[in-house]
């Protein structure tokens, strides 16, 4: 999730149907989906600036633009931004950097921990942002390790790089 007008802010990163709904949701979809919904609701209530980031896949991908898997899980409110991206870095070629002033505190959540969450968080840190990763509100698919272990390893990596990792239910706004 991304920026805010207050001390903390938010916006789902790649919270698209293909990651949370059948036929192949992430293993932690049943716990991550409500955590993301709660974080988004609290951010909206606090008046945080919200930027929904949507990945645009290729012809054989489940997030092909216009497909059901490409659709955002949470319908953006009129005042919220939607950024379409074509790489793991939500800042690359999207205009996101122009929306978020340098030094803004960001909350990052969504899919996938080891791709977009990691890459966008590292890019935000490199741009001088204060990054909080919302534990329990990001997930991925298993690889050589179970999915939960992959997400935990990403959290450790991001913490070592300067991000703060906080359980999503403990994040406050403004």
Q: Would you give an account of this structure?
A:
- The strands form 2 sheets. Strands 3-4-5 form a 3-stranded parallel β-sheet. It has a two-stranded parallel sheet with strand order 1-2.
- The chain is built from 5 helices and 5 strands; from the N terminus they run ααββαβαβαβ.
- It is globular, with a radius of gyration of 14 Å.
- The chain has a single domain, classed as Isochorismatase-like (Rossmann fold, 3-Layer(aba) Sandwich).
- α4 packs parallel to α5.
- It is of the alpha/beta class.
Strand order of the largest sheet: 3-4-5
Give the total of beta strands: 5
Per DSSP, what share of the residues sits in E-state strands of 2 or more residues?
15-25%
Overall shape = globular
Q: Let me know the CATH homologous superfamily.
A: Isochorismatase-like
The count of domains is 1
> Stretches where pLDDT falls below 50 for ≥5 residues?
1-7
Structural class designation: alpha/beta
CATH hierarchy: architecture: 3-Layer(aba) Sandwich
Largest sheet: 3 strands, parallel
Helix/strand order: HHEEHEHEHE
Evaluate the radius of gyration.
14 Å
- Provide the residue-averaged pLDDT: 92
Number of helices: 5
């Amino acid at each position: 999730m991304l920026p805010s007008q207050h001390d903390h802010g938010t916006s789902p990163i790649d919270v698209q149907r293909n990651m949370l709904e059948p036929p192949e949701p992430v293993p932690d979809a049943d716990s991550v989906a409500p955590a993301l919904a709660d974080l988004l609701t609290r951010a909206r209530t606090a008046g945080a600036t919200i930027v929904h980031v949507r990945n645009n896949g290729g012809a054989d991908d489940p997030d092909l633009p216009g497909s059901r898997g490409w659709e955002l899980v949470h319908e953006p409110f009129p005042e919220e931004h939607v950024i379409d991206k074509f790489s793991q870095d939500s800042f690359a070629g999207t205009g996101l950097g122009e929306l978020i002033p340098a030094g803004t505190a960001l909350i990052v959540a969504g899919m996938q921990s080891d791709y977009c969450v990691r890459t966008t968080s590292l890019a935000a840190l490199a741009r001088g942002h204060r990054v909080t990763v919302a534990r329990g509100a990001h997930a991925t698919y298993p690889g050589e390790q179970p999915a939960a272990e992959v997400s935990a390893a990403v959290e450790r990596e991001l913490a070592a790089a300067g991000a703060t990792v906080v359980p999503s239910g403990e994040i406050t706004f403004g």
